[in-house]
Design brief:
Oligomer: single chain
Helix content: over 70%
Structural class: mainly alpha
Distance between the termini: 68 Å
Largest sheet: none
Radius of gyration: 28 Å
């Protein structure tokens, strides 16, 4: 996962949305520039996605390695002397702390990604409402201008 809390799945979702977004709705006269900007944004997202996937895979491998080490420690525990059992317990506690940290970081990243998605949806909803309100104001202004222009004095 990347620093700003986006998982590879979240980045892939954003890439898909960007790839399917119809630029002609708002950029008809600037379509070439808009296509170029979209291509650059998608390329940047692809790099971020590749980095996030690599980080997630590394974290998963690290967690698996630590879990295997914990398992090996527990297998040695029963046949160990009391002194060795104390050492194994301490080492197992450290390994479990490492494993818990990796799991917590992954959970924090997922939560941050979900929150970012919610924030983006709220932002988009506000933008839609603002756009609707602006369109209504323009319509009212146009109507008022028509009435003023066309009404007898």
């Amino acid at each position: 996962m990347i620093e700003d809390g986006k998982s590879s799945a979240e980045i892939a979702k954003r890439m898909d949305a960007l790839q399917t977004y119809d630029l002609t709705e708002w950029a008809a006269e600037f379509i070439a520039d808009a296509e170029k900007a979209r291509a650059q944004a998608i390329a940047a997202l692809q790099q971020l996605h590749a980095g996030a996937v690599a980080q997630e895979e590394t974290a998963a491998k690290e967690a698996a390695r630590i879990a295997a080490e914990l398992d090996a420690l527990m297998q040695r525990f029963d046949s160990a002397s009391p002194e060795e059992q104390a050492k194994i317990r301490e080492e197992a506690r450290k390994k479990q702390t490492e494993l818990d940290k990796i799991k917590a970081e992954g959970e924090n990243q997922r939560n941050a990604g979900e929150q970012a998605g919610k924030n983006q949806k709220e932002h988009d909803d506000r933008q839609d409402k603002t756009t609707d309100a602006e369109a209504a104001n323009i319509s009212l202004a146009t109507a008022a201008t028509s009435i003023t222009c066309c009404s007898p004095t």
